[in-house]
Design goal:
CATH class of the largest domain: Alpha Beta
Number of domains: 4
Distance between the termini: 86 Å
CATH topology of the largest domain: DNA primase, PRIM domain
Strand content: 15-25%
Number of helices: 23
Strand order of the largest sheet: 19-18-20-21-15-22-23-24-25
Helix content: 25-40%
Radius of gyration: 41 Å
Structural class: alpha+beta
Shape: elongated
Length: 744
């Protein structure tokens, strides 16, 4: 059977043809034809309405469906079914691991394997008392004051006998009283029935005004009927499943009718509970007749004959006492959770803790989240960690275990990802001695939700003995609404599955929520539900530090002095300058101009320009930890110098408050408006003083110092009232030249 036909047949099982208008009935036919199904599906479904069904009518009508510009589609049928309680299957398949057994029990509601259930014998009662059969049935299901619906009359249509609407005028108490005096002549009380056909009864009480669902006064029972297997096996399965059966009746045909406690407060709860009941039955081999779901349904009446066989009461009050007790039992025997253990039994034999993966931060087999805003270099941080684990080196000052790591790349194209690893290795300056410890799974453009990805990942990684799986980033594989706590809890459970199945750590990154993060704790900054921050065993949160202009100038001075010192040492002239000289970039550049050859000095100016650009691009960050297994570590201050994070050993960042830690209403309150023109004028003055070695300043000197293009430097000079340019040289015009050794 094609999948489309199977799915639509399942939806039709929830739609009673007798409940539809003529136009709705025609619409179902149109939808089935539009979906490419045969007319036989429509005809078979239409037969349920015995009073309106006419043989051949479906086929004749089918031929008139020619199609329109706005056709009725299968979606109409689906909507009808959804409104009547149908829910699509969401667990239709899964990948099997290499070690999995085909047919192994993995269904959350599977209790028994129907293939191994032995049948339980049935025997017609030899001492036949029809009236007592029905009295027991009524006493079990109804209160004496409740109205009972039943059918004894039938009619033949197309060779098949169908029940009429029947009678719904008497209470259970009155029927019991009359049956007690009838001397087993049930027909004298209920009306004569056709012994070739049998009789029917409704298992829920009615209001005495009709026999539709709206006439049901108490949603007490549901009908479980399966005619696809031997009666003895039906009997055995119903008992094995501990169904809360009030009455179990032999239909006199090929099925048993179990009247099962539902005990619902209203129709909506009735539908929900019947859904659960039918799902459990189906998953344990009882393929039920779907059209028996409605609460006003007819069932076979015990105490009558049907085609020479008895419709009789097999048993009453089987299994659990009520639906709630039965459901609790189902959940308990299928949850596959471990039993509680006594602390007294393990006190002297505590299990070993998992060894640290990242010392003082994360244990092997646990989970870690790296969170931060955009441009924090989170992906580079994870790549640095992967390399540190592969090589057994430090990461951001934390020592790491050594082993094999899988990096799941969900965002970068393959070439960019591989080049990033090479760039980080080069920037670290580490020889790549253990590249075989790094596996990269490139999934850009192929990412699937985590609940689908997890089993595929586990299958590929099962034999690799990874110590960590790094997933970057998780927004590509989030299943559900990231602001929903229950959906995100289910999503994060997939990480637990990977940890458990592979025995490795799972490390992943996520972004901060939009907007200002001032006033929030570090664990509340990650976007979406708080589950993200509370689920991992270690949360490392990155937040940017604001670098003042004075600090950035200090950084630039130190960096340029370091470059100058290296150039002098390479030329063998480092002994010709004092340490004080190498503390001022102006004096250091002056010394280099005097002591280096022209070629070496020009190369130095190029290096100085690169250094200044790097300092301007450098960002500062603080990483804070929220840990489950270790004490909280002091915040770690970092420089992000593309593509690498480096711990700040200078202490320059220690006293800086993160900009995002300051409430938005207070940010900028103490700052003066920035005068961009004055910044440009001051920058030119500083550069001129630094480059003035007594023999004139050129535009090329200013370009090298400021890291600007020729046109930009020229525009700065033309804008400043105290400077002029003459060809390639620059001079002050409105005041006396500053001394060459003026303080920096």
């Amino acid at each position: 059977m094609e999948r489309n036909e199977l799915d639509l047949k399942q939806t039709l099982a929830y739609i009673e043809s007798m409940s539809l208008s003529y136009q709705e009935w025609v619409g179902v036919g149109m939808g089935l034809k539009e979906a490419g199904l045969p007319v036989s599906v429509w005809d078979e479904w239409s037969r349920r309405d015995a009073r309106r069904y006419h043989a051949g009518e479906c086929a004749r009508k089918w031929e008139t469906f020619r199609g329109t510009g706005n056709p009725i589609t299968a979606g109409t049928i689906v909507q009808m079914a959804l409104s009547r309680g149908w829910r699509p299957e969401r667990d239709g398949g899964h990948e099997l691991g290499w070690e999995a057994e085909i047919g192994a029990k993995d269904d959350p509601y599977m209790i028994v394997d129907p293939h191994w259930v032995e049948g339980r014998d049935l025997a017609e009662p030899e001492d036949w008392h029809p009236a007592q059969q029905l009295i027991t049935y009524l006493e079990t299901l109804f209160d004496s004051t409740e109205t009972v619906g039943y059918v004894t009359r039938s009619f033949e249509k197309d060779g098949k006998y169908m029940p009429t609407k029947g009678d719904w005028s008497r209470t259970a108490g009155r029927l019991i009283e009359e049956l007690s005096r009838c001397k087993d002549d049930v027909g004298a009380v209920l009306g004569d029935y056709n012994p070739a056909v049998g009789a029917w009864i409704r298992f829920n009480p009615l209001d005495g005004k009709g026999v539709r669902n709206d006439n049901v006064t108490d949603f007490r029972y549901a009908l479980v009927e399966c005619d696809g297997m031997e009666l003895e096996r039906q009997n055995a399965l119903i008992r094995e499943l501990e169904l809360p059966v009030a009455c179990l009746v032999h239909s006199g045909g090929k099925s048993l009718h179990a009247i099962v406690h539902i005990d619902a407060a209203d129709y909506n709860e009735y539908r929900s509970r019947v859904e659960y009941l039918y799902a459990v039955c189906r998953r344990n081999g009882l393929e039920l007749d779907q059209q028996n779901r409605n609460p006003s349904r007819l069932s076979r009446m015990p105490g009558v004959m049907r085609g020479g066989k008895k419709q009789y009461l097999i048993d009453i009050n089987l299994g659990k006492a009520n639906f709630a007790e039965w459901k609790e039992w189902i959940e308990s025997v299928t949850d596959d959770l471990p039993d509680p253990e006594s602390m007294s039994e393990v006190w002297d034999h505590l299990p070993d803790l998992a060894p640290p993966l990242i010392e003082g931060v994360l244990r092997q087999g646990h989970k870690m989240l790296l969170a931060g805003p955009s441009k924090a270099g989170k992906s580079f941080g994870l790549i640095e960690l992967v390399i540190a684990l592969a090589e057994g080196r430090d990461w951001l000052g934390f020592s790491c275990a050594q082993g094999r790591v899988l990096y799941v790349n969900l965002e970068l194209d393959r070439a960019s990802c591989l080049h990033r690893f090479r760039d980080v290795y080069d920037k670290l300056g580490w020889p790549p001695r253990h590249l075989s410890n790094i596996d990269i799974w490139n999934l850009r453009g192929k990412a699937i939700p985590m609940d689908k990805l997890a089993p595929k990942l586990i299958r590929r990684a099962l034999k690799k003995e990874y110590i960590a799986v790094v997933i970057d980033p998780i927004y590509k594989i989030i299943t559900g609404d990231e602001n929903s706590a229950d959906q995100m809890a289910a999503f994060c459970n997939q990480f637990d599955l990977v940890c458990t199945e592979l025995g490795c750590a799972v490390i992943y990154c996520h972004h901060h929520s939009k907007g200002n993060q001032g006033g929030k704790r570090s664990m509340d900054r990650a976007s979406g539900s708080g589950v993200f921050a509370r689920d991992p065993d270690a949360l490392l949160d990155l937040i940017e530090l604001d670098i003042s202009d004075d600090l950035r100038k200090q950084l630039e001075n130190n960096a340029v002095c370091k470059v100058c010192g290296a150039a002098l040492e390479a030329a063998g002239r480092s002994d010709d300058v004092s340490q004080d000289t190498l503390c001022s970039q102006r004096e250091a550049l002056d010394a280099c101009k005097r002591l280096l050859s022209g070629t070496a000095y020009n190369a130095l100016l190029d290096d100085v320009a690169d250094t200044r650009r790097e300092v301007q691009a450098r960002t500062a960050w603080r990483i804070e930890g929220t840990l489950r297994e270790f004490p909280r570590f002091p915040p770690v201050n970092l420089w992000f110098e593309f593509p690498l994070h480096r711990p700040d050993h200078s202490g320059l960042l220690a006293d800086i408050r993160p900009g995002e830690d300051v409430p938005s209403w207070k940010q900028g309150r103490d700052k003066k408006p920035v005068d961009k023109r004055q910044e440009r004028l001051s920058a030119l003055e500083t550069a001129y003083d630094a480059c003035n070695m007594g023999d004139g300043v050129t535009i090329a000197d200013l370009m090298a110092y400021m890291g600007k293009t020729k046109n930009t430097v020229r525009s700065y000079i033309d804008e400043h009232p105290d400077f002029e340019r003459d060809g390639g040289t620059v001079r002050r015009i409105s005041q006396q030249e500053q001394p060459a050794c003026a303080p920096f």
